[in-house]
């Protein structure tokens, strides 16, 4: 089984007293015509640290470069999938990051993006794991009064 490690972020912005979360629409690898809504993430390369991967991937995928990481939040997601006939086990570390940039410039890897309220984000996210991560991030933001 192939092992893959990635890092991503729950990216949020505050506007007029409300919190909005950035979701990206991906093509499902190996499933023609299938898409899913998720969080920004990418493969950890070489000797990169998680924050370095998140900064690089978010810039490449969205054009956003002004992430401010929120200390104390780190969630792990594990899942497996079949890719070209081979089992892949993936571990993704998610950090929490705030941005002031609302404008998104999508890369070729994505089909769409949305800034959504907490409730809208939970409804739009395709996978339960991502919903749980956003729930934990939202609770963390509220508990820290960010």
From TrEMBL:
Q: Which CDD domains match?
A: NUDIX_Ap4A_Nudt2
Residue ranges spanning the membrane: these are 20-39
Superkingdom: Bacteria
**Annotated GO MF terms:** bis(5'-nucleosyl)-tetraphosphatase (asymmetrical) activity; nucleotide binding
Q: Which GO terms describe its biological process?
A: AMP biosynthetic process; ATP biosynthetic process
Which keywords does this Swiss-Prot/TrEMBL entry list?
Hydrolase, Membrane, Nucleotide-binding, Transmembrane, Transmembrane helix
**Domain Nudix hydrolase residues, every copy:** 2-139
A Pfam match: NUDIX
InterPro entries with a match to the protein in the record: NUDIX_hydrolase-like_dom_sf (IPR015797), NUDIX_hydrolase_CS (IPR020084), NUDIX_hydrolase_dom (IPR000086), Nudix_hydrolase_domain (IPR051325), Tetra_PHTase (IPR003565)
Could you say which protein family the record assigns here?
Belongs to the Nudix hydrolase family.
Its protein name is: Bis(5'-nucleosyl)-tetraphosphatase [asymmetrical]
Q: What is the lineage of its organism?
A: Bacteria, Candidatus Nealsoniibacteriota
